[in-house]
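Reply to dn_fold:

You asked what the input looked like. This is it:
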Amino acid sequence: MNLAEKTEAADSLASTIGKLAAYLGGEIIPSVDRAALKRMTPDSTLPLAYYRLWLLHLGGEPPAGDVYWSTIVWGLALMGKGAHVPKRGLGKALAEAKFSEARLEQLLGAPEDIRNDLLRRAIRFLGANRQGFNWLDAALLLLTRDDEKREQLHRKIAADFYRNLPKDQ
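and this is what came back:
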């Protein structure tokens, strides 16, 4: 994949996240659909609302890797309006919400089979503290398979976290 293709893929992912956030945080989503999406778990059967979201509102087939995409949709539905703040990184949101350093270390060091569950816990924590963030960070954390790229993302999240810790820590 050349640089232009990589840039296009990142732009496409950011665009998809933006569309999801706008719909799930908006007023037009039926409350029954939002409730169904908020009840999703990694082990549950995907509700019709998930397919309706992709097929009718985003104009395409649901992406491969439904477990990770369902976590993204679940989190955006859970947090609702204000969930996606493009200029606020995940690390900054975690720091400002006083997420523990130990939990961040677990999240960033987690193997793929555990990462989804730990990210869901972090999302619940941020949602409870009304801390929106750039969901592109969460999507990349789940969807990036390349070890080097994932390590770059870990560094970005950690740097954001430590730069934004409250001064009393």
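Residues 2-7 have pLDDT under 50 and may be disordered.
Hope that clears it up.
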